[in-house]
């Protein structure tokens, strides 16, 4: 419960920070933006240019790989869960069932439902390359304002960063002895996706930060729910005649 409350509070504090200081998002996005000369029927004072990293073939390829990684990991965990459920007696692991179930439920609730189906639909926040600050036509909106010009698949929050954050949470499935060894490199690899999205102008820093952290919040919440449910079952079975 303590981890969930800490992560939940951290998410809202970060949102408040980005909302109060929107220049953070603008400055970080601007560091990846390269202004260029406008051609054709450009508007007065229009800013033209591009995010040059979005044309780098290696980064484009890495983005494609990491885009499908969460779904592939979820499929692998589903297979492991089914195989574990097929065991009986001493070969069946109740703990593995709980761990795999937490991971899968967190994936569905977090990156899929909360982020891609809800927040990215209602947030209204245009992506950096769609705003007039970086060659687009829409006005910039701060994180959490929910009143931008985007109508669908909006910038707040990043679905790919949420997926990467969920993959990072899978460190909990590793044996405790391996977590200090494999944990840091796994987290570092998972941070590649948010970095690429920002460098491409596809998301602001707040989008990827809150997207990444949202999966940790959901993972912790689902873990707490499973633990509370298990404790309730133990109390019920212990008091039954």
Automatic annotation (TrEMBL):
The transmembrane residues are: 65-82, 102-119, 156-174, 181-202, 208-226
User: What residue ranges carry the coiled-coil annotation?
Assistant: none
Going by the entry's taxonomy, the superkingdom of the source organism is recorded as Bacteria
Phosphatidic acid phosphatase type 2/haloperoxidase domain sequence ranges: 109-227
Protein's name in the database: Phosphatase PAP2 family protein
Which Pfam families does this entry report, sorted A to Z? PAP2
Keywords on this record? Membrane, Transmembrane, Transmembrane helix
Please report the organism this UniProt entry assigns to the protein: Rhizobium oryzicola
């Amino acid at each position: 419960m303590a981890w969930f409350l800490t992560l939940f509070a951290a998410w809202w504090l970060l949102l408040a920070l980005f909302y109060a200081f929107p220049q953070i998002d603008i400055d970080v996005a601007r560091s990846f933006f390269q202004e260029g000369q406008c051609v054709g029927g450009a508007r007065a004072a229009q800013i033209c240019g591009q995010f040059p990293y979005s044309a780098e073939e290696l980064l484009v390829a890495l983005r494609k790989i990491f885009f499908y990684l969460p779904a592939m990991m979820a499929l692998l965990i589903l297979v492991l869960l089914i195989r574990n459920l097929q065991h009986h007696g001493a070969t069946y692991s109740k703990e593995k069932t709980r761990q795999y179930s937490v991971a899968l439920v967190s994936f569905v609730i977090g990156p899929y439902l909360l982020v891609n189906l809800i927040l990215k639909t209602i947030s209204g926040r245009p992506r950096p390359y769609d705003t007039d600050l970086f060659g687009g036509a829409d006005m910039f909106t701060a994180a959490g304002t929910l009143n931008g010009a985007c109508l669908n698949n909006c910038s707040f929050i990043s679905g790919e960063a949420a997926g990467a954050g969920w993959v990072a949470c899978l460190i909990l499935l590793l044996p405790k002895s391996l977590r200090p060894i494999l944990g840091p490199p796994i987290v570092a690899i998972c941070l590649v996706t948010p970095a690429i999205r920002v460098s491409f102008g596809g998301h602001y820093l707040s989008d990827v930060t809150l997207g990444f952290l949202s999966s940790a919040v959901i993972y912790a919440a689902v873990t707490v729910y499973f633990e509370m449910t298990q404790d309730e079952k133990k109390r019920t079975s212990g008091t039954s005649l």
